[in-house]
């Protein structure tokens, strides 16, 4: 049952984890949040639809699925890079939140007069090793992480909600860049996480057994076939709940980003972050396992994760995450919009009307790539300044 709700857990967790890195310094900038809502509708929503459609079509994890889909569409193997990019994005997100958690834990322990005499990078490396070990538990750490984070935030509410003064500011390209990054990264659009979640559900269905221990081959084949049958599901049944949940949690994250957590609340919150990071590393290792095997996939994930938290500054990690995730979303949007067969996507999405499908197709082919290119230009201007 936990596998079935993995996508919803991640939809609720990512905004809480990543808003702090992409929200403006003054969270009361009305124009920024309007741009974020605009990007959520025009960029994130079409991308999540594309991701779920490809998941239904391939019935595989992203890396294996892209190999199958590129052969099916007779497209260049270059588009399979999306699978590799998603693994890098997952490790980068895990490294970023673990870096933040290590600083937060040391700060909380200092207030409790219990801080170890260790540099931040050493604590971050230790947490990364622990997170990789926890990743062996698969999906199980997700509800634990969410519970600990919620308890920590509730403890912060004892000091009252922070006062937010809302005001309009000037709209510019760098603000659009931050809004698009927030709309993509913090909701997981283009990371392959929802694709992977759908794959886990399908895999669980296929490998289920009857009480007598025998595989239910007939019922499984029926269920597996139903995932390919356009009349048995609609992508909106999965996409819209995820997207609405992200929108609601995003608003909660907006108002809770300025909460002052007590030391115990910080410890609980950052312990929860560690459990969530383990799922991201599990996802990355599973992707790499398709090519190298599980053990090598875990080793590569560990090495890359430790290197990121020890030698890459946090600000650079944010930049790395922006670049890699933007490229991943661009690859996904171009492949889904221009290379996938129309008939295959129409069946996978199964919209209620042809007009809805046409709107999505225009968005994924034109609006999403243009929005991403403008956002990357905005980030370049921000970094140069």
Automatic annotation (TrEMBL):
The chain crosses the membrane at residues 34-56, 77-98, 118-137, 144-164, 176-196, 238-261, 267-285, 292-312, 318-338, 359-384. It comes from the Bacteria. InterPro entries: SNS_sf. This is Uncharacterized protein. SUPFAM superfamilies: SNF-like. Keywords: Membrane, Transmembrane, Transmembrane helix.
